[in-house]
Design a protein that fits this description.
- The chain has four helices and seven strands.
- The protein has 157 residues and is an alpha+beta fold.
- It has one domain: Aminopeptidase (3-Layer(aba) Sandwich), CATH 3.40.630.30.
- It has a seven-stranded mixed sheet, sandwiched between helices.
- α3 links the parallel β4 and β5.
- The protein is globular.
- The chain starts with 12 loop residues before the first strand and ends with a strand.
Length: 157
């Protein structure tokens, strides 16, 4: 499902596309031990079932401070990545981004969301729980860098 750039801009949420590839890659590299590669992200943007939204700072569309990406195959969504620039963390951007994403999912007619999170990432787990996610399983040895488990979480809309 493709969204125009200005979709939901009134809330600060902007649909991202191939033209935002460099900004998303930069944010991935700043935030994740195992960031998506340029090829993975480029291929994802080609899929109809992939969508990414970003929050931008005061400098406008050149100042990506947070983003979230997800697959959507109705009636479900799988949240793939959510990142907030390190210098902008703990300011409520992640909470706002998740709230906006869940509202968009509801408006898209989706009824369930899934995500995986490192079992040690307590701040992220707390954020997801505040948005109604609950642990439903564990993926043993999921992360390639250190063999850490992933907590599988879900919520209904």
């Amino acid at each position: 499902m493709n969204f125009p750039k200005e979709w939901s801009a009134e809330a600060g949420l902007v649909a991202l596309g191939r033209t935002d590839l460099d900004a998303v890659l930069d944010l991935e590299r700043r935030c994740f031990v195992l960031p998506w590669s340029e090829e993975q992200l480029r291929n994802a943007f080609e899929l109809e079932t992939f969508t990414a939204f970003g929050l931008f700072g005061p400098a406008g569309l050149d100042d990506l401070i947070a983003y979230v990406s997800f697959y959507h195959v109705p009636p479900e969504m799988e949240i793939l990545n959510m990142a907030v620039r390190p210098d902008c963390q703990r300011l409520g951007h992640g909470f706002r981004l998740m709230a906006l994403l869940l509202e968009k999912g509801r408006r898209m007619g989706l009824n369930r969301a899934f995500l995986e999170v490192r079992a040690s990432n307590v701040p992220a787990i707390n954020l997801y729980e505040k948005h109604g996610f609950a642990g439903i399983g564990l993926r043993k040895g999921y992360y390639a860098d250190n063999g850490e488990d992933a907590l599988l979480m879900s919520r209904n809309f």
